[in-house]
Structure formats: structure tokens, C-alpha cells
Specification:
The protein is mainly alpha-helical. The chain has one domain: Orthogonal Bundle (434 Repressor (Amino-terminal Domain)), CATH 1.10.260. It is 69% helix and 0% strand. Helix 5 packs antiparallel against helix 6. It is globular and about 40 Å long. The protein starts with a helix and ends in a 5-residue tail after the last helix.
């Protein structure tokens, strides 16, 4: 049996990253290189998220989408330190887990 975080990292985290990438580039006007740096990704990986080669969009609860919106804004405004970003991702995944009880 896999730990919940393993399943989240495989199925949900890519969707979260994809949404953050799109928001940074489309809504906040970041370049792919700048957005990739903020997300701790390579530009190539970010490009794959934007083109939907990675992180196919999952339907997420509104509370999770709100956290993603707030995180994208903070990333765009550079108010999140890199070491804080991973903790924020964990909190978004935890929120998802608390809301979606039947997640594998």
C-alpha cells in the first residue's frame, strides 16, 4: 500500500504545478524562464506543464483552487521564499486530502 503522499505526488501535484505555471505565465505575465525558477522547475518542464504534456488537469475542490490562486499571486509578487514554496505545496495537498476522502 502506498503512502497518501506518493499518490498525491503522482496524480494531484502535477495538476497543481500545471495550474500554477499557467497562472504565472498567462495571468501574471511571467516568462517561462522566470516562472520555472519560481516553481523550482526547468524551463523545459514548465513548457511541458503549459502544453499539457505533464500534469493533465484534475478537477479540484474550490478550496484547493483558491489556495492555488493565492500561491500564484504570492509567487508572482515574489513574496514566497523558495524554502517556503515546498511547505505551501504540502499544505495544498493536505487540504486536498482532507476534502477528498476517497482518494487512493
Amino acid at each position: 500500500m502506498k503512502a497518501p503522499c506518493e499518490n498525491l505526488s503522482k496524480f494531484i501535484l502535477p495538476s497543481i504545478r500545471s495550474m500554477l505555471a499557467k497562472k504565472l505565465v498567462v495571468e501574471y505575465g511571467c516568462t517561462q524562464t522566470a516562472a520555472a525558477k519560481k516553481l523550482g522547475l526547468t524551463q523545459s518542464a514548465l513548457s511541458r506543464y503549459l502544453s499539457m504534456e505533464r500534469g493533465g488537469r484534475k478537477e479540484l475542490p474550490q478550496e484547493v483552487l483558491s489556495l492555488i490562486d493565492a500561491t500564484a499571486k504570492k509567487l508572482a509578487e515574489s513574496t514566497i521564499r523558495p524554502e517556503e514554496f515546498n511547505l505551501i505545496l504540502c499544505s495544498i495537498c493536505s487540504k486536498y486530502r482532507s476534502l477528498v476522502k476517497n482518494f487512493p
